[in-house]
Amino acid sequence: MNRLKEEIRQYVELNPNCSAAAIVDYLCNEIKMRNHGLTARKVGFFIPRYCKDITYALDASTGKRLYALTE
């Protein structure tokens, strides 16, 4: 779980205003965490619970959460 938190935090730091789908794409294809069963929904539930330094804003046109680090 600590590795997942760090990988998500690093990705959001490098790519502010990213969606959960973009985070899952990065984790599964770039970091090779394919066997972890990650989905955008699971990451969307994981971030508010375990990554307190990441906040989100809703995109007005699509309704998706866009994640960024708190300042």
Structure overview:
The chain is of the alpha+beta class. It is 49% helix and 14% strand. It has three helices and two strands, in the order H-H-H-E-E. The protein has a two-stranded antiparallel ribbon. A hairpin with a 6-residue loop joins strand 1 and strand 2. The chain is globular and about 35 Å long.
At CATH level 2, the architecture is: Orthogonal Bundle
Topology as a string of helices (H) and strands (E)? HHHEE
End-to-end Cα distance, whole Å, is 24 Å
State the helical fraction: 40-55%
Which oligomerization state do the chains in this entry correspond to? single chain
CATH topology annotation: Arc Repressor Mutant, subunit A
Radius of gyration: 11 Å
Q: Let me know the CATH homologous superfamily.
A: Winged helix-like DNA-binding domain superfamily/Winged helix DNA-binding domain
Q: Which percent band covers the strand fraction?
A: 5-15%
Structural class comes to alpha+beta
How many beta-strand elements?
A: 2
- Shape by Cα distribution: globular
Mean of all residue-level pLDDT scores: 92
Strand count, sense and barrel status of the largest sheet are: 2 strands, antiparallel
> How many individual domains?
1
Give the strand order, joined by hyphens, for the main sheet: 1-2
Indicate the CATH class. Mainly Alpha
The number of helical segments is: 3
**Stretches with pLDDT under 50, minimum 5 residues:** none
